[in-house]
Structure formats: structure tokens, C-alpha cells
DNA sequence: CGCCTTTGACCTGCGC
DNA sequence: GCGCAGGTCAAAGGCG
């Protein structure tokens, strides 16, 4: 764990229910249970670690770094980031939102590409990135960033 | 026709 | 300062 004491991290279940991150899991599970029920048995989902940052059970709240020149003038944002791993053969998992792919990159460690998606709903700042687990190509790692400002359906 | 992928170029932070 | 790595842009084409 690499949290500073000034970062608020909730770990108890009662506190988790207050966290925006929990909403992610709600609709995620809903969407995937409905849309991907065929592969549900193999779709084990659980939070995953990210470099340098450790996610608690259901996600965390992190302070993004100092504003870049592109962001200069805006105040520092706090974003929700949530990553998890899914055992799936396909990486285009329908979670109930409309996504527009805006980039693809090869990552150095892995032979697998990483895909960048953005929520295509007007004004919604949510992004996600999808990549395969480099050790277990059977798994897909999905990282959500931001909070949806609208309903999924 | 509108929205989507694709893809290489571009930008930026960081380490050497 | 340079090069690399990760993230984003945008022009071009595809598909309903």
C-alpha cells in the first residue's frame, strides 16, 4: 500500500457503499451478467493491481498529478480509477455504455496492444482502457477512469 | 449521412 | 537534450 495519510481511502463495506466506485461495480456486473451470460461462468472479475497504485476492494480515489500544460488553468482533478481482470476470450465486453475507440498502443512489457476508449455520451468524461494480461492471455484487464454523468440505458 | 475504427503522428513526462 | 514510453489527436475510410 502506498497511500499517504492525507488520502482518504475507505475499506469497510459501509463506507464502500458511499463510494462512487461501487456504482461502477453495480452496472458492470449488471451489464455483464445480462450481456455476457453465456461466458459468465468464465467471467471471473476481481480488482487488479496497477503499477504504483494499489486498488482496495472496490476501487480508489486518487489525486491526479499536477496539471500539465494542456490542463493548465484547470484545477487538479480527482478521478475515480478502477481496474479489474476478466477471464474472457473477447476483449470487447459490452458493459451497457457506448464507447468510441480513440487509440491503440503497444505496451513495452507485453506483446499485446492496449486499446483506449472514451464514453461517447455528450459531456461524459469517462475513459477506459482494455488490454490483455501479459502473463495470462486468457484474461482481459479493463481500467475505468472517471464517473459517468448519465444512465447506462 | 452520422458515427464508428483504424492508424500514424503528435505531445508530454521522465530518466539518463 | 535526447530518446523512450504512455497517452491522445485527427484524417481517412468503413459500415449501418
Automatic annotation (TrEMBL):
SUPFAM superfamilies reported for this sequence: WRKY DNA-binding domain (SSF118290)
Plastid is among the record's keywords: no
PROSITE patterns: WRKY (PS50811)
Composition bias, Polar residues: 60-70
Annotated keywords: DNA-binding, Nucleus, Transcription, Transcription regulation
InterPro entries in the record: WRKY_dom, WRKY_dom_sf, WRKY_plant
Residue intervals of the WRKY domain: 88-153
Transmembrane segments: none
Stretches the record annotates as Disordered: 57-76
Localization per record: Nucleus
Entry protein name: WRKY domain-containing protein
Species name: Citrullus colocynthis
